[in-house]
Design a protein that fits this description.
This protein has 383 residues and is of the alpha/beta class. It has a single domain, classed as TIM Barrel (Alpha-Beta Barrel). Helices cover 44% and strands 14% of the residues. The protein contains 14 helices and 12 strands. Helix 11 runs parallel beside helix 14. The protein starts with 9 loop residues before the first strand and ends in a 7-residue tail after the last helix.
């Protein structure tokens, strides 16, 4: 690991704007979708070193939840209650005209010192779309729709007299005032060939579901190559679920309890829906296509990232992901506020210390398993 330049990894957390917590399990989750609770979490998160929060989007509550708050309004509330935290509002292109969202975003940037970001979600929940009366396109067409959506957002944010004629969205001679001084960062997820190609062409950030170190490295390598072919670069976020305890045994015990108490009916229902969506791709590479029951208990495969153990163990694993090209970790927690605070106090400082030692030229020993995983990854660390 000599002569490796490490940029500080960014940390984000899943906003619990949905009832029932972040795992589909009957285990106790000391969390709430209540707005006041979420303001407390956001303020705690920015105090302990988190730079981003991601507000989930759903209009008909899913994952077995009973209630869910709308993402853009909830994000604005969190932004107005904080000073530094960036909030990523998830949005579906088939529920918005991009010109309307562009205006909302430009106003929000002025209100919040340019801290809004957007996660453009191409969608898997067909029933939600059809029950609300919008057209549900085939898998690859939904990514074309998202790409046009992003193009129009950027166009009206940056150009006068902007026009666009597309298959999904149109605009004629649009000039917005005010245009944002800093345009919101644009995130997207997806595991399919269509999703990766879209990221390579238009997105600032590419989110990956929870993955092993080797699989995350492969995702970084594939999308980086696509972006480079378009004369661009992309940054990478990775989903994870953190269980940090005094001992590895205690952390692993909590993980197994979460899975043992999984709400089987809800997990299997979610799994059937998302795996049908994942397998609908032409090459079977969609999200969740190979997820097993235990993966789906945390609905973005967060357990696969393996952030389970003591603060030192988790910090070393975090650095390993950074070394293979991950720029941001998006984290879920069991007891959200108290574990966000604990992660920020116990893990983030250890990660910063490891980054500083590595940048200073020290040859770190992360342990045989992590050293081997990093060595096997051929992705260079971004300068």
């Amino acid at each position: 690991m000599e002569d490796v330049a490490v940029m500080p990894l960014k940390f984000a957390y899943w906003v619990p704007n949905v009832s029932g917590g972040l795992v589909v399990s009957t285990i106790e989750q000391r969390t709430s979708h209540d707005p006041a609770y979420n303001v407390e979490v956001a303020r705690a998160a920015e105090r302990v070193g988190f730079e981003y929060a991601l507000t989930q989007v759903r209009y008909l509550a899913s994952y077995g939840a009973d209630a869910q708050h709308e993402s853009t309004s909830f994000s604005l509330a969190l932004l107005l209650a904080t000073e530094r935290l960036k909030v990523i509002a998830a949005v579906h292109p088939f529920f918005w005209h991009p010109g309307v969202l562009a205006k909302f975003a430009a106003t929000t940037q002025e209100l919040t010192n340019n801290r809004l970001a957007l996660n453009v979600v191409s969608g898997w929940f067909k029933n939600e779309a059809t029950q609300l009366g919008v057209t549900w396109h085939e898998h690859d067409d939904r990514y074309k729709q998202s790409e046009e959506f992003i193009e129009l957002l950027r166009g009206v944010w940056s150009e006068d007299g902007y026009s666009q004629s597309g298959e999904f969205f149109n605009a004629q001679d649009i000039t917005f005032r005010p245009q944002p001084k800093i345009t919101p960062e644009l995130f997207q997820g997806g595991n399919s060939t269509a999703a990766q190609a879209m990221a390579g062409r238009v997105s600032d950030w590419y989110f990956m579901n929870g993955k092993s170190i080797g699989d995350a490295a492969a995702g970084v390598r594939e999308v980086s190559a696509l972006a480079a072919a378009n004369g661009r670069s992309v940054r990478f976020g990775l989903n994870g679920f953190a269980l940090v305890r005094d001992t590895r045994e205690e952390a692993e015990s909590v993980l197994e309890e979460i899975i043992a108490k999984a709400d089987r009916t809800k997990v299997e229902g979610f799994g059937a829906a998302v795996q049908e969506a994942g397998n609908s791709t032409k090459d079977g590479k969609g999200m969740w296509a190979d997820s097993e029951f235990r993966d789906l208990v945390q609905y973005n495969d967060g357990f696969r990232t393996g952030l389970v153990g003591t603060p030192d163990e988790v910090a070393r694993r975090v650095l390993a992901y950074e070394l293979v090209g991950v720029d941001l970790l998006l984290l879920g927690f069991l007891h959200v506020k108290e574990e966000v605070e604990a992660f920020g106090e116990l893990v983030i400082p250890r990660v910063r210390e490891l980054e500083a030692r590595l940048t200073a030229g020290e040859d770190l020993d992360l342990g045989p398993e992590l050293d081997e995983a990093v060595a096997a990854a051929t992705v260079p660390v971004p300068a």
